[in-house]
Every structure is written in C-alpha cells, then in structure tokens.
Amino acid sequence: MWSGRILSVQPRIRLTRSFSESSHSYLGYILRVDGEVGTLTKEFLVGIGKAAQAKHEFQAGDIVRGECLPVADSRIEPAEYYKASKLKVLDRCNHKLLAPPPWLGIPMNLESYRQRGHRRLNARTYANKCSHCIWGCRMTVEMIIDQWRPQKRRYRIETFCYGPKSCAFYKPGPTRKVPGRNGITWDEENWVDDDATSYRSPDE
Description:
By secondary structure, the protein is mainly β. Helices cover 14% and strands 44% of the residues. Strands 1, 2, 3, 4, 5, 6, 7 and 8 form an eight-stranded mixed beta sheet that branches. A two-stranded antiparallel sheet has the order 9-10. The chain has helices spanning 50-56, 110-116, 123-130, 190-196; strands spanning 2-18, 21-37, 40-48, 63-70, 81-91, 119-120, 136-144, 153-161, 176-179, 185-188.
C-alpha cells in the first residue's frame, strides 16, 4: 500500500542503444510521490500504465493512494515500484499552478511525446530544475555493446527534455558517448537532437 501527494507526472520510457542506433519503449508514466510506501515515509517513484493515467489524469498536487510492487530489475525500469493497482484520487489539486517553467499540469499522451522528440538534458539540471516538470524524463538505458553478442549489455541512466526549446532552465550537458565492440565509442552529437526536434518552433 502507498499514499501521498504527487510531486510530478513524467513519461516512463526505456531507451535501448546499439552504437549509433536507438529505440524507445513507452511503458507509461511515473508518479513522483511524497508520502508513505509500506512502512517507509519518503519521496518515491511509482510506475503506472498509460490506461491508468488516461483514466485518472494525475497531476502534481493530487493526493492519491494505491498498491504496488518493487520493480524486478532496476536496470531497465525507471520507477522504484510498479504494477500499480487499486488507484484512487483522494483529493484533487485545487491550487493555482505557478507559471512555468516547470510545467506541472496533466501530461500529454505518450504518442505526443514520441512525436515531439527529445533533447539531451544535463543530469544536474534535471535534478535541480526539471524533476517535477511534465517535459522532463529520466530514462533507463540498455546498451547492446556487440550486435553479434547481444547478451553483452551495459546499463545507465540518461535524462532528456521534451519541452519548449525556449525554456530558460534547459542545459544540454555533454554529448552522450555510446560504447561499441572492440572498444570503439560513438559520440551522439548535437545534430541528433536538432534533427529530432527540427519541426518545432522555439516555444513549442
């Protein structure tokens, strides 16, 4: 059993990298909650499915409760708890949200996130400025080091921004380096982000 106040709702996405190629798995959403889970009082992350978010329309400020399980493999799951069930909104956010950034309303559907594309986001900026924003995303990354030996994999966390290009908080941080076979490394340069978001105007 868990309960508490939602601090943020962000997309729950897993990124798979294979040298210069990448793909995304859209798992649902992550609720960042300040409250109680089991016997612990803390801030924690609960993974929910897209159907649950569509039904309840969770947003920052809502007080909720439910049941969940600890994740089976934290290397590939961005939440701490998942398989959330018996979800119930105890109290809706009834205060006026501050002017963005960060954006704290009801997030868009996952297809809209996919269409918008993301830019890399500095990890420290995410932690200090963007962990409560609907456009921020903390992804688990599974890296296939050798296509001929797909069982050889590495894991890490990367942070991204789906928000407006004009956001005053945004900082890209260093380019992402992806290890490959025989010690070769691919550097994901700025053009990758530029291409992914090229159709959006600065305020989109």
